[in-house]
Design a protein that fits this description.
29% helix, Rossmann fold, alpha/beta, GMP Synthetase, Chain A, domain 3, single chain
């Protein structure tokens, strides 16, 4: 049965009271007031709720988001006490229970680790992995979430690089490690025992007063070099990311968010954090098959679904029961651009849902989103900057580009991470002073992505600086070629790569997966591409695949494909 959310109390507070509550160490439940409803001023040291079954959905988007960062663990204090906060396999935690469990876990962690220590988790989605971002932050520790799909060698690198003093994980995963895979002094604990140990100890920590600029997490990203690099995120980075996303998605207290993305992934983590900022309910899901996603949507009355393009493709190829679709209010996409055809398919499948295309990078969380009302009129656009982000397009000389001039996307503002953990060289390459003219100044992330901004301020992706194909003297955007292939309707997924060629510089290789219904795809694709693209953009080789490899974050694994074809 779907979660019953119509009769939960609506919590109200005034922003001017939040900071005072925090300074006094008093828990608070800040959510927006209902439009037109008069509320008495919030008194310090109290919780104020409005019990009203008929009150309309509260909208975070109705007000400008608050730019004040707080300690990350304060997110546990946001929701109404008896409202559902987290759906687990065997039970549902209310916000009151969430607060109690975070306090308990934080107290236990603080007794076993020193302030600033890195503590790693390597397990599937569950109570521990969902609560650790807040509990570790409250204890003054740095959380290192490890994707459960990673193998021994990758995990060993992350543990060694981060210098983790504790690893909590699934027993089967932990037994796959050798002694030499663990840093000196790293304590290994079975996740199933953690809360028992915490309850036995009985220590609890109240909401913290940490400096928001303190380090809260290190997220490791898979890079082109093979070895993951750790992105350092502060309390402020993660808090404001939650505020920003909850605001532009218009998340509300009656929303149910299905969290299918890995919690080691920046947006996977944010799904939990932005949901709790809104006082809403998160449903973590590790799925084996696309139909598991549809079943969960029906079972829990899901309103919000996020995915990456390969998963969207799979979700459009299955049968959806009517009760799985009925409650969906919004779809959010990250990790790659949506094609026009995929947009049409999603619109047909979820006719009542608002579609939010987004662009981001772990080093600055999210950068842009496209308003759902503009998807049809600007189908290929990345949109504009999200709240708290300043997005500049900069030429090779460091000057801000004119309209329609191609340049590098540079992200400025408080969402910019603190650099790469123990990697000064790569930090210096990507984290550089903001361009002259930035309203934020300070350090900016130079993304390496080539974009252009039109006269109306909408951004368009051109390609990666280091992924551009240069063939016969022509610079070719892989995305442009991929978009053309997908537009034919003959292929469901496409990746364009340049393979070194003595004569051409790069030979264009196109790797594709056919659509289930396409007939005579191979010959037809060549014919359609010749119709749509100039000669210099025609692929020299087309590789047909029944299945595309995906990385642990669910994106098409371009690195693996490049290795296979010798790119």
């Amino acid at each position: 049965m779907p979660l019953e959310r119509n009769h939960h109390p609506v919590v109200a507070s005034f922003r001017q009271s939040e900071q005072g509550l925090l300074k006094q160490g008093v828990p608070f439940e800040p959510v927006e007031r209902a439009a037109g409803r008069q509320i008495k001023p919030l008194q310090f040291g109290t919780r104020v709720v409005i019990a009203d079954c008929d009150v309309q959905r509260l909208s975070l988007g109705a007000l400008m988001p608050d730019p004040t960062p707080y300690p990350l663990d304060q997110l546990a204090e946001r929701g109404s006490a008896q409202a559902p906060a987290l759906v687990l396999r065997d039970r549902t935690l209310t916000f009151e229970e969430l607060r109690n469990r975070v306090s308990l876990l934080a107290g236990w962690l603080a007794s076993r680790a020193a302030k600033g220590d890195r503590v790693a988790s390597w397990a599937a989605k569950g109570e521990l992995t969902c609560l650790l971002p807040l509990a570790a932050a409250r204890a003054g520790l740095v959380h290192v979430p490890i994707n459960p799909l990673l193998k021994r060698a990758q995990v060993a690198h992350i543990l060694a690089d981060s210098g983790s003093t504790m690893l909590m994980g699934t027993k089967a995963r932990l037994t796959s490690l050798e002694d030499e895979d663990l840093p000196p002094g790293c304590e290994v604990l079975d996740e199933s025992e953690i809360f028992g140990l915490a309850e036995a100890e009985g220590a609890e920590l109240p909401p913290s007063r940490h400096d928001p600029d303190e380090l809260a997490a290190i997220l490791y990203t898979s890079g082109s070099t093979g070895k993951p690099k750790g992105v350092m995120l502060s309390h402020a980075n993660m808090w404001l990311g939650a505020v920003s996303v909850a605001n532009y998605l218009d998340l509300a207290v009656d929303d149910v968010v299905l969290a299918v993305l890995p919690l080691s992934f920046d947006y996977g983590q944010n799904q939990l954090l932005s949901t709790w900022y809104a006082g809403a309910c998160a449903v973590p899901l590790d799925y084996l098959f696309p139909r598991d996603v549809a079943k969960a949507c029906a079972k829990y009355g899901v309103t919000t679904l996020a995915a990456v393009p390969p998963l969207w493709v799979q979700l459009t190829e299955i049968e959806w029961p009517a009760d799985a679709i009925a409650g969906i209010r919004r779809l959010t996409n990250t990790g790659g651009a949506l094609t026009r055809e995929l947009v049409r398919e999603l619109r047909a499948l979820f006719p009542e849902a608002r579609l939010f295309p987004m662009y981001g990078l772990t080093e600055a969380f999210r950068s842009t989103y496209l308003d759902p009302e503009l998807v049809d009129t600007h189908p290929t656009s990345m949109g504009k900057a999200i709240p708290f982000a300043e997005i500049l397009v900069v030429d090779d000389e460091g000057k801000i580009c004119a309209a329609n001039e191609e340049g590098e996307l540079v992200h400025c503002g408080p969402l910019v991470a603190q650099g790469y953990w123990q990697d000064a060289a790569r930090t210096a390459e990507r984290f550089k002073p903001a361009p002259a003219g930035s309203r934020y100044g300070g350090t900016a992330v130079w993304s390496g992505d080539r974009v252009r901004r039109d006269e109306d301020g909408f951004l368009y992706f051109v390609g990666r600086r280091d992924a551009m194909i240069k063939s016969s003297g022509n610079r070719i955007s892989p995305q442009e070629l991929e978009t053309a292939a997908l537009a034919t309707g003959l292929v469901a997924e496409a990746v364009a790569l340049g393979v070194r060629d003595e004569r051409l510089g790069h030979a264009i290789h196109l790797i594709v997966r056919p659509t289930p219904t396409a007939l005579d795809s191979e010959e037809a694709l060549v014919k359609e591409l010749k119709k749509e693209l100039p000669n210099f953009m025609q692929p020299h080789v087309i590789h047909w695949r029944d299945v595309m490899p995906v990385n642990p974050n669910g994106k098409i694994d371009r690195t693996a494909l490049a290795a296979e074809i010798g790119a």
